[in-house]
Amino acid sequence: MSIPANESTPQPGDDRLDVALAAALRARLLGTGLVAIGTVVVLGVLVTGLASLPTAFVAGLVVLAVLGVLALGLLVGVRHWVLRIDEHGYRVRALRSAQARSARWTDVLDLQATTVDGHRCVVLRLRDGRTTTLPVDVLEGDATALTETLSSHLDRGHGYRRLR
Predict the structure, then answer these.
(1) Cα–Cα distance between 101 and 93 in angstroms, integer?
(2) pLDDT at 153 over 60
(3) Confidence of residue 1 (pLDDT cuts 50, 70, 90)
């Protein structure tokens, strides 16, 4: 099994893979947030000038904008995992497409590569009828390597070994 470039530093005996949002998507979200914060500040300054509000209003708005930029940087700029895969199962966070947020590999019926609304996805179908849809284009790393990693974890979870 090849190790994807997006893998966190493994500990001895640890077979965990943390996958974050793609860097391009994080940059786009960060840029959109910065534009929104800047627009609010500019509109606040214009309203303050037109309505003859005290300058303390603008100072407070700038302080809130700085706090907003810091919060945005922490939420979007830092690499946080959205998919965690280990030897026991998987966990998903911050993806709305995941009907089942976590499951053990023994509960996963199969894995399907499909297209949903024009986006490439991997769908993990569970035995109880729920699914987890992972849009591979918004996740960092190679989509093929991620699919192979999921497939190999699923095979091991079911006790299958690959023929060479």
Answers:
(1) 7
(2) yes
(3) very low
Which residues 6+ apart lie within 8 Å of 71 measured at CB? Answer: none
- Contacts (Cβ under 8 Å, ≥6 apart) of 74: none
**Dist CA 35 CA 64 (whole Å):** 15
For residue 161, give the 3-state DSSP assignment: coil
Q: Exposure of 140 by Cβ count < 10 A (0-12 exposed, 13-18 middle, 19+ buried)? A: buried
Q: How far is CA 40 from the centre of its chain?
A: 27
Q: Report the DSSP pairing between strands 89-92 and 102-104.
A: antiparallel
The model scores a pTM over 0.85: no
Please report the pLDDT score of residue 77 as a whole number.
82
Residue 134 in tokens: 């992972």
Q: Which residues are registered as beta bridge partners of 91?
A: 84, 102
Q: Kindly state the percentage of the chain with pLDDT values over 90.
A: 73
Determine the Cα–Cα distance for residues 80 and 20; give it in Å rounded to an integer. Answer: 6
Q: How far, in Å, CA of 135 to CA of 111, rounded? A: 13
* Edge-to-edge strand ranges of the sheet holding 131-135: 108-116, 119-126, 131-135
